[in-house]
Amino acid sequence: MKKHLVTAAFLxxxxxxxxxxxxxxxxxxxxxxxxxxxDLETTxxxxxxxxxxxxxxxxxxxxxxxxxxxxxxxxxxxSFSEDRRSLVFDVTHNADRDFHWTVTGPFPxxxxxxxxxxxxxxxxxxxxxxxxxLPEDAELSTFKYGYVLLTPFSNLSFWxxxxxxxxxxTLNQNGTFDITGVRPGTYYAYAIxxxxxxxxxTAAVYFGKHDQQIVVQNSSIQNVAVTMQSLxxxxxxxxxxxxxxxxxxxxxxxxxxxGLKSVVGFQMLQNNDVPDGSxxxxxxxxxxxxxxxxFAATMSGGFxxxxxxxxxxxxxxxxxxxxxxxxxxAVDAVMQAGAAQFVDRxxxxxxxxxxxxxxxxxxxxxxxxxxxxxxxxxxNIVSVYSSPEGSVTEVHxxxxxxxxxxxxxxxxxxxxxxxxDEGLVKSISLSQxxxxxxxxxxxxxxxxxxxxxxxxxxxxxxxxxVAVLVDGVMPAGEHRVSFDASGLSSGVYLYxxxxxxxxxxxxMTLVK
Length: 512
Fold this sequence. Notes:
By secondary structure, the chain is mainly beta.
């Protein structure tokens, strides 16, 4: 399974499922921590203080258990002990390697558990110790969830694949750390910490590094300061042209004749947010008419992923001018032309998504008007909320000239009510999927109080339905359904439960 450094930190902040009244803890492991000369073929065992809930599988818990270096170990199978208190891995190790495991769940867990052992006859004799430095507004005493790692990689980002560790240590209550058993080499120190992994509303997540090389011989190194940065700073408000020059440089280095074909971003409104053309995630599609190669550049906060893709449909699209107005300018024009009143009259519990797109086929979003010949922004605002008559979806969209900013066309608000002819349900409850983030499967739980027509669907952030998990008359009670996202790309998805006149929607994150 492809693991990312981000996986652990997202697991800290994104899972709200409660599986016990008291936190789980790891009470023992096999082999024991700091064991040497571990057999190449053996079982790795983590024993918890109480049984793992029956609805979880061993594969589910693999999302919470990681090992480094992954390239030097084969995991043949994972299973539970008979009493479900132990998670067991059958493995084959490479010889003369140090291995480091991290256990960050199931939630709630009292603190992260680390296991280090070696198949060599001894660990290194050096240690690296130091102190985390958090921003002034952060309360250090609350950050007991986290760990510090040493790795030979100098530019490790929050999104990178799980690196090779040279050592790892949990944090002490005062923010100090002590990584032991380090072998000679040149390393860099990174840390991931959070205040409360069980509550996504209050959790504060930080990621940081030590700025200088750490050259280890056979003696201890002290006073290594790791400066932490709030995860919020990894997701700045990002307008469509913020990274365009960097992305253009990546494209030109791979294919200098490529033209920009489409731009897609979204803003999910919450806590009285105002549409401003910003987006955490942007996707830019490029195509080279000479080589017939297509490229996708995805920007997540300050990070850009770039890859060649198989998408010949891009060749038929017009090339967008790089001098076109930004999405912020386009959204501002739409808001001034009437969208502000649309957003203001939405109920407080409405789920509102603002999609800002250029260079895409807008007929798939219900547009039936004349398509402009020149470049334009398509601003699509979708609001979903519940009413006594049933679920209500309201849509407001506009076309904006991408060069002048003039409104080309703006629809009257379209309203779609979904009454429950068959529904008798008086109340519903939709649980957070587990695990979340997930790869590639997750489970979704829901509860309905009375028999009724029930539909559970998954949507991407462009509002397209990508999966239907339940569609039919369901009996009252608790239900669980599995969702396999093998065919979907990484990102944020919405899952929506409608039963009778009641509707609930939640978010989940797929990380591959």
